[in-house]
Design brief:
Number of helices: 10
CATH topology of the largest domain: Hsp33 domain
Shape: elongated
Strand order of the largest sheet: 7-6-3-4-5-11
Radius of gyration: 22 Å
Bound molecules: zinc ion
Strand content: 25-35%
Order of helices and strands: EEHHEEEHEEHEEHHHEEHHEEH
Oligomer: single chain
Structural class: alpha+beta
CATH superfamily of the largest domain: Hsp33 domain
Number of strands: 13
CATH class of the largest domain: Alpha Beta
CATH architecture of the largest domain: 3-Layer(bab) Sandwich
Helix content: 25-40%
Largest sheet: 6 strands, mixed
Distance between the termini: 48 Å
Length: 294
């Protein structure tokens, strides 16, 4: 795994920069959730957006980045932590639409209206904000989110590019944010052609890593931190059993009577937690229901 987010400083104009490369994570997500091409590509953008936003946090910050839309994708959910763990899901995993080129390229997937909502968990304190989608291009709408919801001038660019046979070949993003007493004109200038420069840099680099991409885009940057990013979930078999127990004795008895065993599939990571008949008996016993082995 070589995916990571690099945090860096541009001293002269006083800007902070995060650069993310998430090809492995995006392909891992595609495999876990069996995502069709359009679902996989849009979710890859969401993962990059989530990782970049989480990189702005300190300590044990988590962000939940949610896209909701009226198009057939319906939306996605990304849960990203400052320490590099990321997970999430797409509401419609099977979307395989023909995508146009140009600024309307994602309308077939996203439709014509929707929202980006962000929930920030900063050490147990929650901050929520949301904006309406206006351009129906995720990167542009994320910039719109920052412009309307965040007090600090911030620009972001995201790219998902094919590399040979691999549709999720280059999955990367950049975020630039003004520091106190930073030069806002310099930020705007850098942001002007950021997406095009990101695209070209991904094509040019022989090995795409966040550190190499940061050096290519901002040769003068002082790189401070390179945090590995991986698709990781907090689910477990114990939590799956607790979920079943929460259904109550009648429901669990019904599973015993009709199926004999079951599985709880985690929405966030696709892991299937198998639940055997003895597990179900144990749950029934814990719920105070006499066990009736057949
Ligand atoms: Zn999970």
């Amino acid at each position: 795994m070589s995916d990571s987010v690099v945090r860096a400083l541009l001293d002269e104009p006083n800007l902070k920069v995060s650069v993310a490369v998430l090809g492995e994570v995006a392909r891992d997500a595609r495999r876990r959730h069996s995502l069709a091409p359009a679902s996989a590509s849009l979710f890859a953008q969401g993962l990059v957006g989530g990782a970049l936003m989480a990189s702005l946090g300190k300590g044990s910050t988590r962000i939940n980045l949610q896209l909701e839309c009226d198009g057939p994708l319906r939306g996605f959910f990304v849960d990203a932590a400052t320490d590099g763990d990321i997970r999430g899901f797409v509401k419609n995993p099977s979307l395989d639409v023909e995508l146009a080129s140009g600024v309307f390229q994602w309308r077939a997937a996203l439709g014509n209206s929707g929202f980006i909502s962000v929930l920030r968990d900063v050490g147990g304190e929650f901050y929520r904000s949301s904006v309406e989608l206006i351009s129906m291009r995720f990167g542009d709408d994320l910039n719109h989110y920052f412009a309307t919801s965040d007090q600090v001038p911030t620009r972001v660019a995201i790219t998902v590019q094919r590399n040979a046979e691999e549709a999720l070949g280059h999955v990367a993003g950049v975020l630039i944010q003004l520091l106190p007493s930073g030069d806002e004109a310099a930020l705007k200038k850098l942001a002007g052609d950021l997406e095009a420069r990101l695209h070209d840099a991904c094509e040019k680099l022989p090995t795409l890593t966040a550190a190499a991409l940061c050096s290519e885009l901002f040769p003068q940057a002082r790189q401070l931190l390179d945090t590995p990013v991986k698709f990781a979930c907090t689910c477990s078999r114990e939590k799956a059993l607790a979920t079943l127990q929460a259904l109550g004795a009648d429901e669990v008895q019904d599973i015993v009577d009709t199926m004999g065993s079951t599985a709880v599939t985690c929405q966030f990571c696709g892991t299937k937690h198998e639940v055997t008949l003895p597990d179900l008996w144990e749950i029934l016993a814990a719920l105070g229901r006499p066990v009736r082995p057949n």
